[in-house]
Amino acid sequence: MNFSLVFFFPKWSYALEKPNTGSIFNIAWSVDGTQIAGACGNGHVVFAHVVEQRWEWKNFQVTLTKRRTMQVRNVLNDAVDLLEFRDRVIKASLNYAHLVVSTSLQCYVFSTKNWNTPLIFDLKEGTVSLILQAERHFLLVDGGGIYLYSYEGRFISSPKFPGMRTDILNAQTVSLSNDTIAIKDKADEKIIFLFEASTGKPLGDGKLLSHTNEILEIALDQKGLTNDRKIAFIDKNRDLYITSVKRFGKEEQIIKLGTMVHTLAWSDTCNILCGLQDTRFTVWYYPNTVYVDKDILPKTLYERDASEFSKNPHIVSFVGNQVTIRRADGSLFHMSISPYPAILHEYVNSSKWEDAIRLCRFVKEQTMWACLAAMAVANRDMTTAEIAYAAIGEIDKVQYINSIKDLPSKESKMAHILMFSGNIQEAEILLLQAGLVYQAIQINIDLYKWERALELAVKYKTHVDTVLAYRQKFLETFGKQETDKRYLQYAEGLQIDWEKIKVKIEMEITKERERSSSSQSSKIIGQKH
């Protein structure tokens, strides 16, 4: 009697073999997951090997045709190269113009520009379970640890943390960028460890990224400066969050981007994030908008119906403007998003603001203008921000930007830009460091932060009467009586004289303007010398 041997990949049938061996009583996989052995009813042992695996990147398709042979096809010119290996292939990854292949004894690194002369180095263990790639280097995970190598084969670092178990790490719990390695802790699944890629040491002061719920999937963005590096993650409630890896000590900096998100991926060419959100495919063209202007975040999104992907689809890759999604039945679906947001990112990163404005005028899409508005504010280019906000009908913000332009000093302008982005504390610190105490008091008055305004006035022994006057005016407007003990204490026996207060404010503004003019003159004289 013949029995079938069926291979499944989590939820779909991958291959079917019908060996003439009688009943198969037991099967076992090899440690590396590339071979399977079966004990048969006729006394034989049947061995099988996993082949026909495929990896794709841009115009290249790599197929494992035999245990020790790969075929590389360039779909642009239909050129074919055969790659032969001394031992059987265990793991492989194709990304960032490099193919990294792990055999039972060695690691091979191929460049897509030259398939004939790979870089080869020996492995400590032959059981590589995961390969992750970034633009500058790649990560190998085996039973002994985590190892980071350059594409020239140079060992870079090996991050470690207490209780680390490499056997359970996968592409959802480890993420790699040019400067950072992120690893989810298995002992406490609310924690993410962050390491410097170049040294393998904990990032910054060694603090952990800690969340309120268990984390399911993590992903680091791939472009930009180290100080701007962001990490996105999905928790067990399927909420999507984003935070800066340099500011993870501040709980308020972990901001929710979306709900019911099942899978996510960053683009390899710019910091655009995509995810499958319930029944929608969503692209966050500029996720950093949540730190700049949350109000316009919905205007920076692209959404389309994702019901055609059926249940539990998974994003395999996000290369350029091409997203590859694997459906629940195992089939791959390729879809393209607009190429213009990536071009906009490129212009902004190069400070080509005029080109960015011309691009938005050419495309004529609200999402592009909204992205440009947020990008301009993040980069302190308020002239571009004014144009972009006007294009999306945010007139109140255009007026506020115009008011910033009229401020007498660059410190005041910068402080109000920080306020525009919601960074109130940073704006106040900037003004106090510049000696602009009145301006620091005034921004608290404008935001109705009365306790802080009075605290600063008392501490620096200036404009206490100004704070009391504005407070009194505020209460009169709403027909209320003063109940705050501190305000009652300082108001006792004090007469409010608005004329004197206005004169003091004018003097402060004049003094600030003169100081700004003198500092600019000093710079000009210095440049002439």
UniProtKB/TrEMBL annotation:
Gene3D superfamilies documented for this protein: 1.25.40.470
Ranges where the IFT80/172/WDR35 TPR domain occurs: 368-514
Keywords: WD repeat
The species this protein was found in: Cnephaeus nilssonii
SUPFAM superfamilies recorded: WD40 repeat-like
Domain IFT80 second beta-propeller per the UniProt entry, residue ranges: 52-340
GO BP term (any one): cilium assembly
Protein name: Intraflagellar transport protein 80 homolog
GO cellular component terms attached to this protein's record: centrosome; cilium; intraciliary transport particle B
Keyword Ribonucleoprotein included in the entry's annotation: no
